[in-house]
Description:
The complex is a heterodimer of chains A (289) and B (316).
Chain A lengths: L10 E2 L15 E5 L5 E6 L3 H20 L2 H17 L1 H12 L3 H21 L3 H5 L1 E3 L5 E9 L2 E5 L7 H13 L2 E5 L6 H12 L7 E4 L3 H10 L5 E3 L5 H12 L4 E2 L22 E9 L3
Helix pairs in contact in A: 2-4, 2-6, 3-4, 3-7, 4-6, 8-9
Chain B lengths: L2 H5 L1 H4 L3 H9 L6 H12 L5 H13 L1 E4 L7 H12 L13 E4 L4 H7 L6 E6 L9 H13 L4 E5 L2 H5 L3 H15 L3 E5 L8 H13 L4 E3 L11 H18 L4 E3 L7 H15 L11 E3 L2 H14 L12
Parallel strand pairs in B: 1-2, 1-8, 2-3, 3-4, 4-5, 5-6, 6-7
Amino acid sequence: MSDTRLAVAKTYKLYIGGKFPRSESGRSYPVNDTRGRFLANVAHASRKDVRDAVVAARKAFPGWSGATAYNRGQVLFRVAEVMEGRREQFVADVRAAEGVQQRRAETLVDAAIDRWVYYAGWTDKLSAVLGAANPVAGPYFSFTVPEPTGVVGVFAPQKSSLLGLVSVLAPVLATGCTAVVVTSADRPLPAVTLAEVLATSDVPGGVVNLLTGRAEELAPWLASHADVNALDLTGVEPSARGELARTAADTVKRLVRVPDQEPDWIATPGLERLRPYLEDKTVWHPMGV
Amino acid sequence: MPQAALSGLDEARRDESSLRRFLNGLPGVDQVGVEQRAAGLATRSIKKASKLWALDTAISMVDLTTLEGADTVGTVRSLCAKARRPDPERPETPQVAAVCVYPDLVATAVEALAGTGIGVASVATAFPSGRSNLDVKLADTKLAVESGATEVDMVIDRGAFLSGRYGAVFDEITAVKQACGDAHLKVILETGELVTYDNVRKASWLALLAGADFIKTSTGKVQPAATLPVTHVMLQAVRDWYTATGELRGVKPAGGIRSAKDAIRYLVAVNEVAGEEWLTPKLFRFGASSLLNDLLLQRRTQLDGHYSGPDYVTVN
């Protein structure tokens, strides 16, 4: 018997509705590290996978948006816990995907875990910070509360495979929205590992749907989809964003303003990625004597 | 179907023992075969113009149904409004075939659908269990017909059928058929309770012999409800009935058909098993409530070129 072990060749799948299906199209594509060495095959999502993911996200929306903010915070914190347990795997994934040194990869993974904790803390503070008791000239008690807008289509950054992904995904979940995420095309493996973390943490199936594939192929379908309420075009070429924004305007989607160049995701974010996913609901209540 | 069995249709109607002889003489259903054929046909791809045609045809075959204890005059009226104009933004969308309600709400539906050509179907005969005596079942049917129902959906006595009292089931169907007068009679076999495909075939022939205009799979209150293989067996029965007698009888799968994709699979089965002449609301219906919205959404997707969402159709 030979001493050399045959490595298990991997073909990863999509993450839709809490399950790991193959792409409806049956396609997959090889993923290499930054030096061109083969890492694994991943599913190549098609427009019908986008369709299925939106259906799953819509189905999960009432449950997730209806959960208490406290509960959502607990669930997001739990994601950080599970990620912490798989820290070594994430570091290896990020090193292979981004071609960075061990120390840098550790920094990025730690920042990604901390970002979940950061947004976990925001869930039950949003209504206090973004809501208001409005001063009105009349015998009314008027107050405004922020409510999640619905299903959000997210194109994750192409370069920052994990920290960038978490930085665009976690705020969607913190507001109570559900997400359909198209991952980085050339660096999807940390996202695949994150899908495994999400599936084994407390995030309900369908709240996050991760599609590995080409943003330029899937973006028109997600932008025109009438059942998507908001769009984050971070991972789309800046030159293509204008046309997609116009398409998205047909169904009045919320559009996240994103810089042309990918930012350094290490910096602690503020409210800018939470606000676009929230709709203000204002209630006027007559005050008796 | 062997010719010998078909030539004995009149003979089968003569008395209970000859009926039993006829039904027991029906060839058994090849379970593996029918399931494989149903699954094989379900993979057929229907795209573009054919898909649009199939969606419109399916919409025109829907028996828009509400059979809830909580039904009110208001819910029936709003359902009728939806039946008349399924997609208000697209007035060219075909109307549904009929609205299906409980007998006491028939009058409301008739009034709301006056002049539209949309049928009013009513369930009757102690729906959904069918557990009552014949007088009560006939009174139930009479209430529906006198209120103006154009179609009556009756349930068979599954207890009698399963214990082999075919004559009792036969007599009940003929009695209800008589009480229906001009109204079309759909006979619900409740295939989920019949257990085997052989029983489905027997019950189909029993209902056809007794004068059913339609044979319908289920009440929608029992799981499993309509399935493709069961519908295959029933489509075979109406096709063989046509070969033997020259009479066209219809099939109505009901319950559990929720997506446009499923509906199109049924249409493929109709075309392949029974034949093209069955692709009309006169001979094939879908008993459904949530199916209509999915058909409308898919129709919009085809016409608009982008995916639509449930916010764009009326709620049931």
